[in-house]
Amino acid sequence: MAGFLINDKNTIQMTIKIQNHNNKNSENLNFEFIEKPKQQSLSDLPLAARMRPDTLEEYVGQKHILGEGKLLNRAIKTDKLTSLIIFGPPGTGKTSLAYCISQITKTEFISINAVTSNVGELRQVIEQAKIRKINSGRKTILFIDEIHRFNKAQQDVLMPDVENQAIILIGATVHNPFFSLISPLISRSLVFELKPLSQEEISIIIDNALKDKIRGLGSFNVRIDNKAKNFLSKICDGDARRALGALELGVVSSKPDREGFINYDLSVAEESIQKKAVLYDKSEDGHYDTISAFIKSMRGSDPDAALYWLAKMIYAGEDIRFIARRICICASEDVGNADPQALILANAAMQVAEFVGLPEARIPLAQAAVYVACSPKSNASYLGIDKALKDIENDTTERIPNHLKNATFEGEKKLGRHVGYKYSHDFENGYVVQEYLPNKVKYYQPKAIGYEEKIKQYLEKLKK
């Protein structure tokens, strides 16, 4: 027997009386359900929320997991999805994917944010899902945004109901779930990474928003300049929410011209996203000219110029891994053994920059660029390997002297292999004169600069 009471807190209280047939005692179970809020008007939602896809065909991006025949695609279409953890940068479609799954599978969609939620709310939502499944057979998707914000105890609350599939959990996070979520929850879920959207994919999303007259901006008669669209697609750094937010702000705040059109040009795009356009195209001269200026500034020992070109690349949205790789190359090619620490620092900066991401990545990158710029310079190692490669390519390949050959088996020594080899550590100063290369060619010529001067003096001393 059940009784319902609607109280003044917009919740529904339900009491279920369970009769025990053996001792004729009864027990009351009380549940309190949060009343589902009235659906928000479509016009009140931001453009990014209004344009959320209903089908996988409408969903843009993430083909590596949603392409035809991929595991997640099959699981969604066959309604065999269990629990799911999706992680990736902001604006890559985590919430949209969860909503899309709920529309395709015809499940109840409950969304909460781990920042503001608590164990009490979790238990209420889960109990609602159980009752719904018993009464109507309808499944419930519990979407938890920023699930990494739940502590271990809060995550443990989810475990039994994820295990028995009382709910379909979809957790979204910008962090690596293997570090931020408990192992038992990970082991019971499919885990997929969402990649930043490409410039082409952001352009498609912008076009879709401008064409859609019901959910998008199609009724505004917008004429968007290609430079403005390319700028938005690139400057948002794979974040569709940011691109659509800037698009909507620029459109709704602009007045139509005499012909009734809203002209969305580059200046409007810059103002809407609060960031100016920098002449920097990753496939044209802006990209190559800037990285060239950056490297030549470090090679030329000008830390101020190096910092300026580094700042331009970061501001324009250049891949920080590309920048870090170029610093490493410069540290080896142009500094070399004049300061061996330069390459160590550059490599450390590359790892730290990728680990922490922007905006903090600018700090280790700047430190490494300044260190390389201020270091003594020598390209002796670079010149040496190129000269050796040229000789390998153009001249007869040198034979390996017998005393340098490997002799693992006794029979090989009878062929003269390894015979006569002098072990350097058996001699004074760990050095002994013997032939290592038949053709006496000078490849490495250390310069009298920085630490390489010590290397030069050491080799000269040995040869005496």
Question: What would you say this structure looks like, in words?
Answer:
With 464 residues, the chain is α/β, with parallel strands linked by helices. 47% of the residues lie in helices and 12% in strands. It has a five-stranded parallel β-sheet, sandwiched between helices. Strands 1-2-3 form a three-stranded antiparallel β-sheet, covered by helices on one side. Strands 9-10 form a two-stranded parallel ribbon. Strand 6 (140-145), helix 6 and strand 7 (168-173) form a beta-alpha-beta unit. The longest helix is centred in the N-terminal third of the chain and has 18 residues, at 119-136. It is extended. It starts with a strand and ends with a helix.
State the total count of DSSP E strands: 10
Mind summarizing the main beta sheet?
5 strands, parallel
Q: What gyration radius follows from the Cα positions, in whole Å? A: 33 Å
Return the string of H and E elements: EEEHHHEHEHEHEHHEHEHHEHHHHHHHHH
Contiguous uncertain segments of 5+ residues? 1-38
Instruction: State the helix count.
Output: 20
Shape: extended
Mean pLDDT score, rounded? Answer: 83
- What oligomeric state is this? single chain
Measured distance between first and last alpha carbons: 104 Å
Strand fraction: 5-15%
Class per helix and strand makeup: alpha/beta
Adjacency order of strands in the biggest sheet: 5-6-7-4-8
Proportion of residues in helical segments: 40-55%
